[in-house]
Each structure stands twice: as structure tokens, then as C-alpha cells.
Amino acid sequence: MRCRKCKGKAVLDIPRHHTAFCKACLTEFVCAQVERAVAEERMFTTADRVLVAVSGGKDSLSLLNILRKLGYQADAFYVDLGIGEYSRQSKEKVERYTGARGIPLYVHELKEDEGAGINDLADLVRRPTCSVCGTLKRYHFNRAAVMKGYNVLATGHNLDDEAARLLGNVLHWQEQYLEKQGPTLPDSVEGFAKKVKPLYRLAEREIAAYAIVNGIDYIVEECPNAQGAKMLLYKDILNRLESESPGTKQAFYWGFLARQKTDAQTRPSMAEHDRAVLHPCATCGQPTTGEICSYCKLMARAQKNGPAPVGS
Amino acid sequence: MKILLNHPVREVEVKGPRRVREVLKELNLLPESVLVVRGDDLVTEDELLKDEDRIEIRPVISGG
Ligand code: SF4
Ligand SMILES: [Zn+2]
Ligand SMILES: [Zn+2]
Q: pTM for the whole thing?
């Protein structure tokens, strides 16, 4: 197979765009898609300080790589979930990647600050591990960005992630989640960093290819808690559809975004809505809709139930 | 040829020469869910794999 652009040897075919690229043209394509996402969704400019939440996986490390290549101010933040060998290896990948390039890296250790790893915490509060993990990560991503002086928090969510999440939300008609599924969430109130997903135009396979071609050493192993997760099933189903008719995933998610934009003209903006319902958490001060934020509730519950020496 | 698979890590033997596309079909893998690496290079579906090639099939789908 030949590269559609330069006729060199292709390394990846991209059926949804009826194209194939060599190494150099693939890198160019991926960077151009990110530039377009950043511009179209008004994510940030070179004047903004962007904190990238990295996990050691292909998406977040590639995102950090691409943003810096494009000239943005992007540094890294890692949450050590304390999941045995998986966390040890993923942290090592992150430290090695950022260390070799002199990229500032902040690390949050669950075992030190919350007093236990994610599996023990989930046991203590008797909730599914991934749901507790989601609450903790959202909280710490935002807090780290705000406290360290970054106005934008970027995550490595890609087209597959967003399409799978959309499918899950639609299947269960979780309309309250749909609104928050855009690639840019505003920094509507004091204490909130803007949240962006600059990889939403790229399929997981394209990002993995970018990582391999650019020599980014990422962790291929999965988080052991992910096995059997619903997300994997949704992604598999979407990829079956994609194989039969290329372009399905993007038609699904981008179509949703286009409708959301049309709707937005007739409804109050998310920022206005946020300002109406959010106020500082009575315990930690981060914005929340309740009296106490879900993170503080979770930690209070862990403290009540647990032998673990839970920190603040 | 020996093929290294992930999730979980394991090795399978497939008789060459075969096209990437056919190998994926035989292993019941969706092209959209994996990448095929020969040595250090990514290869496309039409590539012919030989018995002496060192192949890794990387899943690209993550659940986190
Ligand atoms: S799979 Fe679950 S526990 Fe593991 S990182 Fe993802 S959300 Fe957290
Ligand atoms: Zn090319
Ligand atoms: Zn709180």
C-alpha cells in the first residue's frame, strides 16, 4: 500500500477517510487533526497553560507529545492509583517520557494522600472501583490544574472513547450526561479549569499508530480493573460497525456534537447554567452542586468505614 | 511465523507466507481494533508476512 500523499510506503490505512499514510504523513495528519480540534472547539491558544492528565497509555502520552510539538505550553499530571504492578509500570513510563524531555511532571499519590489505593478505597465505600476512580481522577485533575496555575486541563479521550460513552449514555437515555459530553467544558466558575479533549477527532487506532511511529514508549498493558468493562464492549460493537461501514463512529459522535451546537443557540449556555447551580464545597471549596462535593462525601464515607488512615 | 499477542500476552504460530489481512481473519481479530508491527515497523493489511518475520499484534482498544 502506498501513501496517498507522497506515494511512499504506507504504514496505516484509514478507511474512514479513504486514505493511507506513510510515517511522516501520518504524523502530519494527526497533528493537523489536533490543531483543527483545538481551533474549532476554542480549546486554548499558545498563551494558555495546559495541564495534560497522563496515564502512561498511548493517548495521553501522544497528546502531550503533539501539543508540545505544536508549540503549546503543556505539562503533565499523573495520579498514582496504587494498582500494584500496573501502576508501577505506567508511572515508570510517564516518568521516563517526561524525564527524558525535561517536561514538568506533577504526581498525586493516592496511597499517601487518601491513605489507600483505589481498590481498597472502593471496598471501603462499597462502590464499583471504576466509579470511585472516576470521581477521584476528576477531582484531582481539576484541583491540580487550578492549584498549580494552569487554566486548561486536557485529557487523552479519543473518538472511540467518546463514541462508546455516547452509545452507553444513549442506550440508557442518561440525558443529564449528554450535555457534558462535548470536547470543551467551560471554566464557568472560580475554581474550575477548562476541560478539553483535543484527540476527539482521532480514532484510537490512529493514535496508537502515531505513538508507535514516533517512538513513544507507552504501557500496552490494561488496568486490571478494566477487564470486562462495559466500555470495551461498546467499543467492540462500534468497531464491528466501523469495519462494515467506515465512518460510522465519527458520524455518530460528530453528528451528536453538531446537534448539540444547534441546540445550544436556543438554550442557556452551560456556563450560565453552571454559575446558577455551582457553589464552593463546604469542606474543600471546589465547585459543586451539593452542599459537599462528591469527592469529600466519598472520603468521609471511607473514613467512617475504614481502618485506612485517610488524609485530608 | 511467531506472532506475539497482547491482553493477555501470549504467542501463536501461523504458517507463512500470508497477508496481514488473512492472518487477522484467521485469528478472528477486527482490523479496526489492532495494529500489526513487523520488527519495529507498522505494516498495512496488504503486506505479505513471511515465516522468518517477528510479528506483534497490538490491541489499540483500551477500557479505562
Ligand atoms: S479501569 Fe477503572 S480503575 Fe482502572 S484506571 Fe480506568 S477507571 Fe480507574
Ligand atoms: Zn507520505
Ligand atoms: Zn469537597
A: 0.94
